[in-house]
Design brief:
Layout (H helix, E strand, L loop, with lengths): L2 H4 L8 E5 L20 E2 L2 E2 H11 L4 E6 L4 H6 L4 H10 L2 H12 L2 E6 L6 H6 L2 H4 L4 E4 L3 E3 L5 H12 L2 E7 L9 E7 L9 E10 L10 E9 L2 H8 L10 H10 L4 E5 L4 E3 L3 H13 L5 H13 L10
The structure holds 1-O-phosphono-alpha-D-glucopyranose.
1-O-phosphono-alpha-D-glucopyranose binds next to strand 11 and helix 10.
Length: 314
């Protein structure tokens, strides 16, 4: 037996955690009765893109950390026999397939957060589900283009080098106060398919620009080692009085545990606020085979007819 065969094989992550307990304040009043995760991006809930991404990356077990007012999410990922029978009777095979697709994407589990005490607290609710394995966390505000492979790259870095891996993007100093900001050093590891791999040396949650270590922000993808749970249990409330995942990662860095960053070079659609959401819907719809051609033609006409910026519309 060769020496490499006797080494324990690294255990790759198989589970994904998706926190969905947020109140969706930025989309009120739409989110008064509909979870923000179910708002349609073109014709599918934002959350379906996220579950699809996890499934594509080979994570068939998904845990949603949910809360009050989010029961519609459970319904969405469950079967709906009455609807299916009605579509069958009508012979509407296309819509029936779309309805089935949402239930067949992954094995979806739910746990409730109880109290909204922050992202770190939400992730902590996944401890029993995850056990002693690395796992991914996907936040719903960012949709990653299906042609790019950010999560796969992060999973590969974790499987090869261990520790935790976070996705990074340069958002500019003018935006850094909305994100977890990081300090990095060039990594010892090669880039994966254009995505640079760096070593994270410090993290701060939503710092004012003049206190930010760089303009590199954490975007909503993480591959975490299970050690994060014991750190989260000891993490005091931070920014906004909430238990922050960023602070727990900062503790791991301070202890000398490896935290890698993958700087994403692909296409990301932010659905976190109203303007970005509108842009995401237009971008994604204009690339679709069915809606794209008529939408693009209309957009060109519409834009040509817009008054110059600053002029008042007639
Ligand atoms: C969370 C994290 C933050 C990260 C962001 C990415 O903040 O706390 O570090 O940069 O997600 O979307 P939230 O947007 O939930 O306030």
């Amino acid at each position: 037996m060769s020496s490499s065969a006797s080494r324990p094989a690294p255990r790759p992550a198989r589970k994904a955690v998706i926190p969905v307990a947020g109140m969706g304040t930025r989309f009120l009043p739409a989110t008064k009765a509909v979870p923000k995760e179910l708002l349609p991006v073109v014709d599918r809930p934002a959350l379906e893109y996220i579950v699809e991404e996890a499934a594509r990356a080979g994570l068939p077990e998904v845990l949603m950390v949910t809360g009050r007012g989010k029961a519609a999410i459970e319904d969405y990922f469950d079967r709906n026999p009455e609807l299916e029978t009605a579509l069958e009777k009508k012979g509407d095979a296309g819509r029936l397939a779309a309805v089935h697709a949402s239930t067949n994407l992954a094995q979806v589990h739910f746990v409730r957060q109880g109290e909204a005490k922050g992202l770190g607290h939400a992730v902590l609710q996944a401890a029993a589900f995850v056990g002693n394995e690395p796992f991914a966390v996907l936040l719903g505000d960012d949709i990653i283009d299906a042609r790019d492979h950010l999560l796969e790259h992060m999973l590969a870095v974790q499987a090869e080098h261990g520790g935790c891996v976070i996705a990074l993007l340069d958002v500019g100093m003018e935006n850094i106060d909305k994100y977890g900001a990081v300090a990095v050093e060039p990594g010892a590891h090669p880039a994966v398919d254009g995505d640079e791999v760096v070593t994270v040396t410090g993290l701060v949650e939503k710092p004012p620009a003049d206190e930010a270590p760089s303009s590199l922000a954490i975007i909503g993808r993480y591959v975490l080692a299970p050690e994060i749970f014991e750190v989260l249990r000891e993490t005091a409330p931070g920014r906004g009085g909430e238990i922050q995942l960023t602070d727990a990662l900062a503790t791991l860095v301070a202890r000398g545990e490896p935290v890698h960053g993958v700087i994403f070079s692909g296409r990301r659609y932010d659905t976190g606020d109203r303007l970005d959401y509108l842009k995401a819907v237009i971008q994604l719809a204009s690339e679709r085979d069915d809606l794209g051609p008529p939408l693009r033609a209309w957009l060109q006409e519409f834009v040509a007819g817009l008054p110059a910026e600053g002029a008042s519309p007639s």
